[in-house]
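Archive transcription. Copying these from loose printouts into the bound notebook so they stop getting lost. Printout 1 of 2:
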Amino acid sequence: AKDQTGRIAKKIVNVEKPTDNLQISLDIPEKIVEATEVSIKGKVSRKNITENATNRAIWVFVNGIEADVIPDEKFVSFDFEATIPVTYGRNRIEINVRTNDGFTKKVLEIPNFKKSVIELQIDNDIANINGQQKQIDAKPYISQGRTFVPFRVIAEGFGAQVDWVQQTKGINITLGDKVISMQIGSTRAIINNQVVTMDAAPEIKSGRTFVPIRFVSEALGAEVEWNQSTRKVIITRLTME
């Protein structure tokens, strides 16, 4: 095209093309917990190599951040690493590999979880809830080999809604889309309209309602750890909320 003075302007467009000659393998965690960044490591390999190729260099970008790339002696295999920021929830990771003879990419997701932790000790009315000490209204205890805790401590740690039904002596715990219904003295529980059997029934002791902590915690998707030497129970729940 010519401008008003008669000069000719040229526009050069470089068109990238995909290639199936590159293979990406990754060494990354399946999940991360309360992370602000994550290291993405991997390897790019050429399936075929032309001996007289003059330029075998590659560039790797992870979510737009250029990775450090270390080639082997023949520039056939390349180790790469990049550190990228992440947020809570599902993080989309896109790895783009570019060479002079084409490009390829790989897309995946890494979940980044929030962690809630409740730490309780037998015969101790001080609980540690998400790093903060708090006095609870009754002490946990062990009965017939099962650990019982005041049922409202679940609400403090996990943000659950806990309701007491006086007429039936029933307990309802709601957390997200999970609803657990129990009744004092009964080993039958209902989880989202499914009847299950508990290994211990909820109890009333000194005017306080206690629930078997392992059953309730695991029903809410938490993990329970028992420390025999300190007589502590640690409940950990991961969420992406």
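Printout 2 of 2:
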Amino acid sequence: MRRLLAALCLPLFVAACSGSSGDSGGGTTTPQSITVALATTSASAVAGSSSANTLTLIRGGGFAGVVSLTAEGLPAGVSATFTPAQLSGTTLSAGIAFTIPLATTPGTTPITIRASGTGVSSASATYTLTIVAPPTPAITLTAGSSSVTAA
């Protein structure tokens, strides 16, 4: 009786331990995922100007869903625009334009660029933006003269 029970249970035990679900593929399935990379990881820009970058999306495990892009931790007044705002199908890159108003306080800020899709963990990359003050114009006034010089 023990031999019969062992003969019946052994194939079930082997299948359970091998992780086989009955298919004969023998391979493992890569989980769906996304990863992002930036063309540059840092930049300096003068207040009152803009800065640009490019994001590349890497899709893993056959993931083909829509991916939304956001920027987190922007300095006050600074905006980020993604073109396109969402990546779908075979679209694997987006441009990022940072608009920096003239009144923006100079300083260095790490900005998180995040990609999110349904059914996958979000992915992020850090872009460090250093904002510098615009140059102060030099103005010269000469008393008794009818000319003004500005540089």
